[in-house]
Amino acid sequence: MSDLPEVGTRVSLRYRLPAGETPPHSDVVGHLVDTGATVRVRTRRGDIVEVKPADVLAVRVVPEMPVRTGDIRNLEHAAALAWPGTEHAWLGEWLARFGNGSTRRANSAVPLRFTSYAEIATVADWYSSRGVPALISAPDRLLRIPPGVPTDAENLVMATDMDVAVPPAADLRVSSRPDERWLQLYQREVPVEVLTAVVDGEVAFAALDDAAVGRGAVTEAPDGTRWAGISAVHVSEHARRRGLARALCTGLLAWARDRGATRGYVQVVADNTGARALYESMGFRDHHRSRYVRAEDLLAHT
């Protein structure tokens, strides 16, 4: 059967068993991870079922499993540890991060569990003592933003499982710190101390073909899942549309897999259609959204 959906699609697949078995066929529900010489389906438990294309009898697309609030909390916890700024503090179950104003992500608090507006006031005081406004990164379902409160920079968080090993490009360079050339190619004025910061994890900086760079981080969620976060991906304009971004990200995932990561995520500006298309083609799927909101705007609505 040749009419298979694209890799990453959740399907119900019926396939032929070896001759003599009873019943003569079986079924598997999961995500397609390969549709080449061998059809591979990853089940919800993480098992890989391999089927010859000629043995596929029928396939249908099935809806994605709903993302639970606990799933969002676990991913956001791991992601916050992966980009903590140069100073961070746990304020109850909020992680406040400060990076001297460099990037929103490193200068915002993440409400991993919200109970009252008193926590927002505590967060505001923490940032006020550092002379900066309090910015909150508000993920879906972890903090409800009242109608009328302005938000900014909505991000789409995409996630994938990392069951199929893909070898990195032979000329991919990975190091624990960004060198001068990496920083030149990145083209953003983000201090090295912000880029290299991580809590209870490990970071890596990859470069490919002297034209593409990216950052990877491995951190652990409260449920024990080790997550691989990809960020700071940039390809020089003259080298785009050559597959460098895909090869670079694949290499970072391979690096993270070697360190025990089983799931990966990216955080993409919601209207960046090019980045979304790339990650979708790599098997990433929408997980949840997050946006930034000022603490003073939230407190004004109490």
From TrEMBL:
Keywords: Acyltransferase, Transferase. Residues 162-302 form the N-acetyltransferase domain. InterPro entries: Acyl_CoA_acyltransferase, Bact_Acetyltransf, GNAT_dom, Rv0428c-like_C, SH3_Rv0428c. Pfam families: Rv0428c_C, SH3_Rv0428c. One of its GO terms (molecular function) is acyltransferase activity, transferring groups other than amino-acyl groups. PANTHER family: AMINOALKYLPHOSPHONATE N-ACETYLTRANSFERASE-RELATED-RELATED (PTHR43877). This is N-acetyltransferase. The lineage of its organism: Bacteria, Bacillati, Actinomycetota, Actinomycetes, Mycobacteriales.
